[in-house]
Write a structure and sequence with these properties.
The chain has about 475 residues and is of the alpha/beta class. About 40% of the residues lie in helices and about 15% in strands.
Length: about 475
């Protein structure tokens, strides 16, 4: 009992802790979005600036994160910070302005859309007399609310404990007390903060061990899939880009999809049949976001290995979003962290989603761009996962990327062999069909490695006439 109570004290989830998400329905929140103005040598030397992101879009995203766990957002403000204060991040004048808004709105929780040090978090809580959570803490709360599988829960808890480990000093007013040592040892006992850190470290080690078992299980599943070679196609993209809607449209599944940040957390895999019979495994993954904490990426590495091992990666972009280019760069940065090659000629297909949500003029320009770049390495594909527009072209591109180097065969079929024609349509790609002749109909077909043994057994005359594409 004592061990369980200690776990509750330091925030280890035993089912009794009251997280922000559990209180969300009655929590009034105020969102603060600091805009850090960079000055100094980098700016003076003309260093390459990141892709611009509008301030209003940043505010909307921060509010969206708060709404994702059903906080009652009563207001938001953008704060320009020219000098980062070690104690409070922003200047005292801004702190006082926000304090007035917090008091007027009877706010319980202030969301600061920026990483805060433990000292900054503590000082702002004292100044505003309200609970303060930074961007990382809020994302962790959302992930905790979204996790549905044991694997997802393990990953969230590991990330949360690593985040919490450096903040123990803020959580206590009695950490300096010492416990009595064991009677046979004598001397000063273990300080409470040392005990807390030890408990956290023990729990972290256990979680890392459990996730290593998950990783090995995933490796085993991948090896089994390779025995019956099903290529893997992974969906990646900024959160709320429409990945799950696209996944559902392609696979006729019912994965949870909603206009909500981080609607998907746990990975989902389904089988997908391509136009000419090839089959792939389609994997939906957690959405990425700007300033995603590196320890969170590390915690989800077991899941994200589906991306690193994928034969084709579909980078789904919300092309209707004003910050689509900046979001794309954020996704590319996470892919680089996963050591995935980013750029033209690789295994990434850029999917411009939500073309149904753009103006007619912009839509025409987007379609013109995709038409001009069609056939080139890394050419984008414009689609609407909601209406299904453009999905035939996307599937054709996936198939072309996967089967472009499969062997091509010449075969002749009796016009009456309907069963043979049906088999080829189901399991191969018919590239050319000749006119009927006395010795049959000449067909040029491309066959995947998986179906080659059946093909050669069924169409024996094709074995000696194999060609390469």
């Amino acid at each position: 009992m004592e061990q369980r109570d200690r776990n509750d004290d330091i925030g280890i989830d035993t089912g009794k802790s009251k997280s922000i998400s559990r209180l969300a329905r009655k929590t009034r929140a105020y969102v603060v979005v600091p805009e850090i103005v960079t000055r100094g040598r980098a700016a003076a030397e003309g260093a390459e600036a990141p892709v611009s992101r509008s301030m209003q879009a940043r505010v909307d995203e921060a509010v969206g994160l708060a709404l994702a766990i059903e906080l009652d957002v009563i207001g938001s403000v953008a704060v320009r910070v020219t000098t980062v204060r070690p104690a409070t991040l922003m200047g005292t004048g801004k702190v006082d302005e926000i304090k007035a808004a917090v008091e007027a709105g009877e706010v319980d929780l202030v969301v600061v859309d920026h990483a805060l040090t433990p000292i900054q978090q503590r000082n702002l809580e004292k100044a505003w007399n309200a609970k303060v959570v930074d961007r990382t803490g809020l994302i962790l709360e959302i992930f905790g609310a979204r996790a549905r599988t044991r694997e997802g829960s393990l990953q969230v808890e590991l990330a949360h404990l690593n985040y919490q480990k450096g903040r123990l000093v803020r959580s206590w007013t009695h950490l300096e007390r010492q416990r009595g040592g064991f009677g046979f040892l004598g001397g000063p006992g273990e300080t409470q903060i040392e005990a807390d850190r030890r408990l956290l470290q023990e729990r972290i080690a256990k979680l890392e061990g459990d996730l290593e078992k998950v990783r090995k299980t995933r490796d085993l599943h991948r090896k089994n899939r390779k025995k019956v070679p099903h290529p893997v196609v992974a969906l990646v993209g900024y959160t709320n880009a429409g990945k799950s809607t696209l996944f559902n449209r392609l696979t006729t599944s019912e994965v949870f999809a909603k206009d909500l940040l981080f609607a998907t957390l746990d990975p989902t895999l389904r089988r997908l049949k391509l136009p000419h019979g090839s089959e792939v495994i389609l994997s939906d993954t957690v959405g990425f976001i700007s300033n995603l904490p590196t320890h969170l990426v590390a915690a989800f590495r077991a899941t994200l290995e589906e991306v690193t091992e994928a034969d084709v990666i579909l980078h789904v972009r919300d092309i209707s979003h004003e910050d689509s280019d900046a979001q794309a760069e954020d996704v590319a940065e996470v892919l680089r962290l996963l050591e995935v090659e980013v750029g033209e000629g690789g295994r990434i297909i850029e999917v411009w989603n939500k073309i149904d949500a753009v103006s007619p003029e912009r839509r025409a320009r987007l379609l013109e761009t995709t038409a001009e770049r069609a056939g080139r390495p890394g050419a984008p594909v414009a689609v609407s996962a909601l209406t299904g527009e453009g999905l035939d072209g996307l599937l054709a591109d996936i198939e072309k990327r996967l089967v472009g180097d499969h062997p091509v065969f010449e075969v002749r079929l009796d016009p009456a062999d309907g069963e043979g024609f049906a088999w080829l349509h189901r399991n191969a790609e018919i590239l050319r069909r000749g006119e009927p002749a006395d010795d049959g109909i000449a067909l040029t077909v491309r066959v995947s490695e998986r179906h080659q043994p059946q093909f050669l057994a069924r169409f024996r005359s094709a074995e000696s006439s194999a060609l390469r594409a």
